[in-house]
Design brief:
alpha/beta, Collagenase (Catalytic Domain), 9 helices, 34% helix, 14% strand, binds zinc ion
Length: 286
């Protein structure tokens, strides 16, 4: 009787493990040494339009003041990042579909271990945009065989995400350096601070930062793409546009709008862009 029970339990464990280990059926792997001819030529940085295959390369950073340890807490935090990445990339896939685009994301380092890295920097990376761009870019070039990854996953786009294990008192918000606001920045990446200003970085922020890599600008301050009149309009109308508004938590309520679709190269220029005299997206600029 006891033996039967053990065998039964064993079967249940094997079944459950099997379910969780299921590979993404859409991913057909290629030989890393065989050149994959992506539709995207890299003209707008490492990430082009929101379509095709995109791999997410996750880099866990130890730097001057923070580190990832082997503690149970940090393991849970890393697992939270994994699930927020899943939520964010599913959100992007679903929204791209509304514009008749297939955007497939391969991020799952539990299945594909070459999508997860550890990096150590002696610098204090808790700074605003781009302070250590050259150093982080050099790290990517030295430590990640991006070409082999692109071949292996038949990837059009590569999204690099640095994860930094900050506490709630950290004041620096996550940010992304991207070709559309730094023309010499050929490698685009996001610095995601695990916690900032009293909150755990929400899943919506993950999606927002990834959208930056695809060319979407921020809508909450005037910049090269958006004027102050439009920012005031979004404020006045309580906009939920994901480039303007981020909801907290592990699900995403922020909206992917026609203007976002235009800026990431999958939607035509909406009437709103002309009405508010907004600037061209990076793809039309050429
Ligand atoms: Zn932003």
């Amino acid at each position: 009787m006891k033996r039967r029970l053990i065998i039964c339990l064993l079967f249940i464990v094997i079944f459950i493990t099997g379910c969780f280990n299921k590979k993404d059926p859409d991913v057909v792997l290629n030989d890393p040494n065989i050149e994959y001819n992506s539709f995207y030529d890299g003209k707008y940085g490492t990430t082009g339009k929101l379509e095709g295959n995109s791999i997410v390369v996750s880099i866990f950073v130890n730097e001057k003041t923070t580190e990832w340890t082997n503690s149970g807490t940090d393991k849970r935090n890393i697992s939270n990042i994994h699930s927020k990445l899943r939520t964010a990339t599913r959100y992007l896939t679903e929204n791209a579909k509304k514009y008749n685009k297939t955007a497939t994301f391969i991020y799952d380092w539990e299945t594909y271990s070459d999508l997860k890295y550890k990096a150590t920097f002696k610098e204090d990376l808790l700074t605003t945009k781009g302070t250590y761009y050259k150093i982080q870019k050099a790290w990517i070039k030295e430590n990640i065989n991006s070409k082999a990854l692109k071949n292996k996953y038949k990837a059009d786009n590569i999204i690099y995400m640095f994860f930094i294990n900050t506490e709630f008192q950290n004041q620096v918000k996550p940010w992304t350096i991207t070709h559309n606001n730094c023309s010499y920045c050929d490698i685009e990446y996001s610095n995601i601070f695990y916690r900032f200003q009293g909150i755990a970085t929400p899943a919506a922020t993950f999606a927002h930062e990834i959208l930056h890599q695809f060319g979407a600008p921020d809508f909450y301050y005037a910049n090269d793409y958006i004027n102050q009149r439009y920012v005031d309009h979004l404020e006045g109308s309580n906009s939920k546009d994901i480039m303007f508004y981020i909801n907290k938590g592990t699900s995403i309520d922020s909206k992917f709008t026609a203007l976002d679709a235009y800026y990431v190269g999958i939607g035509s220029r909406p009437k709103e862009a002309n009405d508010w005299n907004l600037n061209q997206n990076e793809f039309e600029r050429g």
